[in-house]
Structures are given as C-alpha cells and as structure tokens.
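Notes from hallway chat w/ T.B., transcribed later so I don't forget. T.B. wanted the structure written out for a chain they're using in a teaching module, and asked if we could keep both sequence and structure tokens in one place. Agreed to drop them here.
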Amino acid sequence: MMLGRTRHGGFTLIETIAVILIVGLLAGVVGPLMVGAAGAYAGARDGRAAVENASFAMDRIVRVLREAPEGATEGTVAFAKALPGVFGFTDGSFVAKSGTDVVMVEPGGATSHPLVRDVTAFELTYLRDDGMELDTGAGDDVTDIRRVEIRLVAGGQELRTGVFLRVGMGGGG
C-alpha cells in the first residue's frame, strides 16, 4: 500500500495570491481607461447638446429676421431697435441677450422665451446694400439695414451666419 498525498481540488495559497495580483494589475490598467472613456463620452454628449441648443437658437433668430415685418416705407424692415446685442420691431417683439440667455419676446412684448442658455457672446452687425456696416447706436438710419451678421457663442460653441432681410430684397428703400 502506497501512502501518498491526496490532491484536493482547490487553489494553494500561492496560486490565490497570484490570481489576486493579476486581477489587481488588470484593474489598475483597465480601470482608468474605462473612467477616461466615460468622461470622453460625457464630454461629447455635452458638446453635442450645446451645438444643438445653439443651432436651434440661431435658426430661430434667422427665421425671425427673415420674416421681419415691413416698415412704413416700402422695402424696409420695421426695426424699432437695432443695436449690437438686440434687435426689435415696431410690433414690440425683439431678440436680446439677457444675462446669460438669449431671449425672444413675442409681438406686444408680453411673452418671453429663452432661446438658448449659457451664452457668452451675442453680437449683431447691421449692413447696408453696399455691404458697409451701419452704426445704429450713432444715429445711422435703421431703414438702411439689408443684412444682419450674427455671432453666437453658447455652451462653448461658436456659430456665425448672415441673414439677408426678405423685405428689403424687393427693391425700394
């Protein structure tokens, strides 16, 4: 009869320590990668949301300018106010930066809607037919406005566009 050691089906202490070390090393390498990937995803998601919000606001502002009411003189827009950070019409509606929001006020001036939040810049430049810039704050005539250049920075995203006023394209003025 041979006396020998019987083998049990478990791990030895050294094997267990080796497995723990390997799992720890893998966690040390893979863990930061997963945290970094989650952070990159969150950043991309936030960036995409900022672009969508700024794009919506820009689209709405462009639409308001293109559909601007006609002024008292044929071929002019009924601007009541045209300053670097605000434009408004004689019907009481306007778009302006208010705090960190760009807001739109409906005709009559009663209802205000934020178009976009987290705005760091909202700039409007008014141009005549010949492309020269108007200084409406210095007394240039708002009836000469034919194009508006818009710069909007919201959520860290910058958008720029130019709008030809449809009312002014029909001639006159």
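Follow-up for T.B.: Strands lie at 79-83, 86-89, 94-98, 101-105, 112-116, 119-127, 147-154, 157-164. Might be a good example for the class.
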